[in-house]
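Example record

The entry below shows one chain as it appears in the dataset: sequence first, then structure tokens.
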Amino acid sequence: MSRQHQTGHGTSPSSLYMGTTHAQQKLPLSCPSCKLLNSPQQQTCQACATALPVRMQDAPPIVPTERPMDSTPISSAMSPPSPAPAQAASTPTEVFISCRFSEGKHYALDIQSRLEQLGVNVFLCEIPPGDDVASAIINALASCTMAVILGTKTFGKKTDSGFSTHEELRYIVNHKKPFFLVKMCAQFEVEETKFRLPPDVSYFPWFPDSVASPAPDELIWQILGKLRSIQPNSVPESGSACHTA
């Protein structure tokens, strides 16, 4: 008996696909025992009753496992990060030291160090090259409580730097900025300095022997005393008075 007669259909395998589209066609199942082609709908072989293999497309559909969703709301997940807390404002300048660096830098640094040890915020211009020196000086001088002037011989001399003790002295006097004068010479050489700092202006005399001479303790307490008279919460003052010419 031919294999075609054994199927009982009398048709070729290709006739199983008649009336279906190419996408709907299913291939016949081959029996693993007798190799007979069976109808796609058969579960056992018609010839030997062997269980036919299950095609992948006939297997029950695989239901994907649901992944737990993130509980974070979409609006929160997409929102921008919170801004960093604003930094606290810098401490305002209390004392601005004005000096000719060629004559009084060492003394100015000593006074700055002594005052800062007592909790006073001091500005002394030491701006790195390339930075805006004028803006830094103007901002510090405008905001300071008091200026300390180291009155050396050439204090107030106009230079080519664009901003020097010449401009600082003008600003201090014109804007009536409180100042403490440390007289470090017998007489100023610059005429405008003589005019703006006349002999009747109160001052503290200090004639150091060398650049290594430390500032007198009395000078530091005098500066603190003047600062306290303007800003009552400053460090307590000492009792000596400044000199006048």
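Notes for this example: The CA atoms of residues 122 and 220 lie 13 Å apart. The first helix runs from residue 3 to 7.
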